[in-house]
Amino acid sequence: MRRGISTKRTGRVTTTYILGLALVMVGLGGSTAFALDPMGPPASALRQGDYKLTLDYSFSEMDFELTDGTSSTGGELIPLTLKDFQAHRAYAGLGYGLYDNWEAFVRFGGTKGTFGDSIWEVGEEFEGGFDFAVGAGAKATFYETDSWRVGALLQASYAEFDGTLELSAPGWLPDVTEIDILQVQAAIGATYHWTDRISVYAGPFAYMVMGDFEDTFPVTTNGAGTITLSWDIDDGPNYGGYLGAYIILNDNSMLNVEYQLAADASAVGLGLMWRI
């Protein structure tokens, strides 16, 4: 049997009874977000008119809040916290130097998420497919010397996470979930040029996650009839810190590695950049 969930008092006994017996959550997220996106050095790497190509990858783990829930049967749902959602993201991107020390970028790619037994504890397991993600942002350098560079970045991404939730309980058909997410990250930081080829960077950052979470599940074990549950995702602002390092491979390319940590999220990222 599925783990029950309380609803607000609506005066609809049938709705409350069905939800109490049949409701199971499909978990998915993301930097972000449900997955944190890689940020890279917190300063512009381009002069006016220059271009860059990028390849970025991140793995993150995050908790987030589901609020203002409603049911297709008319009931209202209590807020929930989804824990330990893990996501992989990969992007190919293009950046352009708008001015000296000021750049804008776009990136396109995909994301894949997994969710385990962290809410209902009835053996549920989610694994979605590889879904669409797109992002854009800007970086600026405010101060620069031979050894130091201080700057900031602002970036946003949109992602879809769709899939099915399998249950360990015998006889239950899988749930189907559809999720749309908008995530915003902002950071400031300093970069120290340690050697001619190696630099390190660090600073504080903030992020917000907004979107919609929709779960459709069968009412009976033979699939006769379904109920759709919808929540808003409105989490943040949340705060954390990040640090990273990059290695200059040649005059036109570099490799960087990065770690991000916040109260309810963490991520590691890798990136390659080529000036063109």
Describe, in plain words, how this protein is organized in 3D:
It is a single chain. The protein has a single domain (13-275), classed as Lipocalin (Beta Barrel). It has one helix and twelve strands, in the order αββββββββββββ. It has one helix at residues 13-22, and strands at residues 51-71, 76-77, 80-99, 102-115, 125-127, 131-144, 148-166, 175-193, 198-218, 226-250, 253-262, 265-275. Strands 1, 2, 3, 4, 5, 6, 7, 8, 9, 10, 11 and 12 form a twelve-stranded antiparallel β-sheet that branches. The longest helix has 10 residues, at 13-22.
Q: What's the architecture, going by CATH?
A: Beta Barrel
Q: What structural class results from the helix and strand content?
A: mainly beta
What is the alpha-carbon Rg in Å?
21 Å
| Total discrete domains | 1
Largest sheet: 12 strands, antiparallel
What spatial form do the alpha-carbon principal axes imply?
A: elongated
Overall pLDDT confidence = 80
